[in-house]
């Protein structure tokens, strides 16, 4: 059995600082995994948490979480057996229809997801499925604009976790739906750009169900001391493969039972 090595806090700080500087400057960096991988996933999450504390101290506001690696195929590719998570800050939200300037991101891609908005605090690490379902205020279609501060998306599991689960921005649909009568597992998804499909999928691709993925997240966040709170957004995971975007693109995701959401990208980054 592999034993993780305790990583010097100075190394955690150095990796966190490098990722912050990349986000600020818009310049990609080399992978951070060689610095932190000996410490296992705990070290990667320590880097993420260091930056979360930094950003909160600077006045950014936490409004939810994102779940990554909900595809079993991607988990196998990265050699892990569970999803990962990242933080959603208020300034990552883009109102539907508002142009997204590509100078806000470095190497963006898009994913279609089901966003879940929580209607009550979820402080218990032994949260049940029934408790989660009762706590869901509504669901909306979403487009996550994922990004990586790591050059050429050359990521392993330690890189993406440390880099806030490769988060960027997100767009939520404006028509909320109650969960009653909707089977999220069977919600089919088509994402299009320029009239052509760029990604297809369904809710079952998201850890078998977005409910299952969200339950995992709520339990893990309660254990980590950052429980989901009333009003928090959960980006529950990609329903299909991520796709690249270019200046001027209009990306539209249709999710059966939930409706349509659009992300509009500015014609240039200037």
TrEMBL record:
Q: Which UniProt keywords apply?
A: Lyase
Kindly indicate whether the keyword Magnesium belongs to this entry.
no
| Recorded GO MF terms | 2-oxopent-4-enoate hydratase activity
Residue span(s) of domain Fumarylacetoacetase-like C-terminal? 83-264
A Gene Ontology cellular component where this protein is annotated is:
cytoplasm
The keyword Kinase is annotated on this UniProt entry: no
Q: What is this protein called?
A: 2-keto-4-pentenoate hydratase
Q: Which organism is it from?
A: Parapontixanthobacter aurantiacus
